[in-house]
Automatic annotation (TrEMBL):
Family per similarity comment: Belongs to the aspartate/ornithine carbamoyltransferase superfamily. ATCase family.
Name this polypeptide is given: Aspartate carbamoyltransferase
Enzyme Commission number(s) from the entry: 2.1.3.2
Residue intervals of the Aspartate/ornithine carbamoyltransferase carbamoyl-P binding domain: 19-161
Pfam families in the record: OTCace, OTCace_N
InterPro entries for the chain: Asp/Orn_carbamoyltranf_P-bd (IPR006132), Asp/Orn_carbamoylTrfase (IPR006130), Asp/Orn_carbamoylTrfase_sf (IPR036901), Asp_carbamoyltransf (IPR002082), Asp_carbamoyltransf_Asp/Orn-bd (IPR006131)
PANTHER family, alphabetized: ASPARTATE CARBAMOYLTRANSFERASE, ORNITHINE CARBAMOYLTRANSFERASE, MITOCHONDRIAL
Aspartate/ornithine carbamoyltransferase Asp/Orn-binding domain residues: 172-326
High-level lineage: Bacteria, Bacillati, Actinomycetota, Actinomycetes, Propionibacteriales
Top-level taxonomic group: Bacteria
Organism of this sequence: Propionibacterium cyclohexanicum
Catalytic reactions of this protein: carbamoyl phosphate + L-aspartate = N-carbamoyl-L-aspartate + phosphate + H(+)
């Protein structure tokens, strides 16, 4: 099993106008505060009450080489809601990569047709290769088991909002992280970016074959936060303010993993929540959740649980992705002036 942090913080420039967004390591607390303020100011646009055409005439290149519903559609919707248009390709079959074209050539070509690119690709580090060849900002929409920075930003935005409604904050929160901690890139980005907050306690539980790589324990410890590996879901969630679940990333399991992973039943369901969690707990999941029988995921029977925030997460994804484009393309300071009634 890998003990590496799959996409360690590196010397990438801070995320700002004209920059790529490849890793959460490009953000600090001030950058988060600004991005969340821009996202909040765009809420009336996301809800269709106002319009804001600050990206009129701009074109987004949307390249998804792995399946996606919410990331692709929310990025594309975000760009269109700000007045821009989208050119896209999905899967390897329908791009000239099927004829052997390289990441370099693909990135350079598409960046010549667009003002920003959003890229998802199955290989860790591949989106950084796209960025190297691109002449416009590239947003990492998921690179293998590496990172998914926009997901972490919408997760943080949601966590902040949900905790605030309970007179709590991320600083000082106890966060249980459950499921596939080995391949779940949303978990990897989240553990990393929560290092910007103080006095956070993580309680992690994953099946042994899908346990968190040891490098992440060191990463969390280096930020001054605490992390405890739990032996069960019950133990992990008991004191949690936030319970963050992930699905098993079956598409990333090797044959050896598949032999080692024998999962059945639910990762979390109403009976477990009622018996072991605080009634005030916030339940999150990046989605999709695997609704097939015995998928070892968040059961649909939790949909009546008051703290279930999964669809507020997906709605917030639109706001956060509009804010990412506004900052990357240098129009964030004009958002408030450009809002018009719908
Ligand atoms: N959370 C997430 O990345 O969902 P999709 O795979 O549907 O984009």
């Amino acid at each position: 099993m890998s003990t590496e942090v799959t996409n360690p913080p590196s010397a990438l420039p801070p995320f700002d106008t004209g920059q790529h967004l490849l890793s959460v390591s490009q953000l600090d607390r001030a950058a988060l505060t600004r991005l969340f303020a821009v996202a909040e100011s765009l809420r009336p646009v996301g809800e269709g009450r106002m319009v804001c055409r600050i990206l009129e005439g701009a074109v987004l290149g949307s390249l998804f080489f792995e399946p996606s519903t919410r990331t692709r559609l929310s990025f594309e919707s975000a760009f269109r809601r700000l007045g821009g248009s989208v050119v896209s390709t999905t899967g390897f079959t329908f791009s000239s990569m099927a004829k052997g074209e390289s990441i370099h050539d693909t990135a350079r070509v598409v960046s010549g047709y667009s003002d920003a690119m959003v890229v998802r690709h199955p290989d860790t580090g591949s989106v950084a290769q796209f960025a190297q060849a691109s002449v416009v900002p590239v947003i990492n929409a998921g690179d293998g088991s590496g990172e998914h920075p926009s997901q972490s930003l919408l997760d943080l935005f949601t966590m902040r909002e949900e905790l605030s409604s309970r007179d709590k904050s991320i600083d000082g929160a106890t966060i249980a992280v459950l499921g596939d901690l080995r391949y779940g890139r949303t978990v990897h980005s989240l553990l990393q970016i929560l290092g910007l907050y103080d006095n956070v306690s993580f309680r992690v539980f994953g099946p042994p074959a899908l346990a968190l790589p040891s490098g992440f324990f060191d990463l969390v410890a280096s930020t001054g936060n605490r992390i405890v590996e739990c032996d069960s879901v019950d133990e992990a969630i008991a004191p949690a303010d936030v319970i963050y679940c992930t699905r098993v990333q079956k598409e990333r399991l090797s044959e050896e993993d598949e032999q080692a992973v024998h999962l059945h039943g639910d990762l979390l369901n109403t009976a477990i929540l009622q018996e072991h969690a605080s009634p005030d707990a916030i339940v999150m999941h990046p989605l999709p959740r695997d609704s097939r029988h015995n998928s070892f995921d968040l059961s649909p029977d939790v949909d009546g649980f008051p703290g279930l925030a999964i669809f507020r997460q997906t709605d917030n994804g639109l706001l956060v992705r509009m804010a990412i484009f506004s900052i990357a393309l240098g129009v964030a300071d004009r958002v408030a002036d450009e809002l018009r009634p719908a």
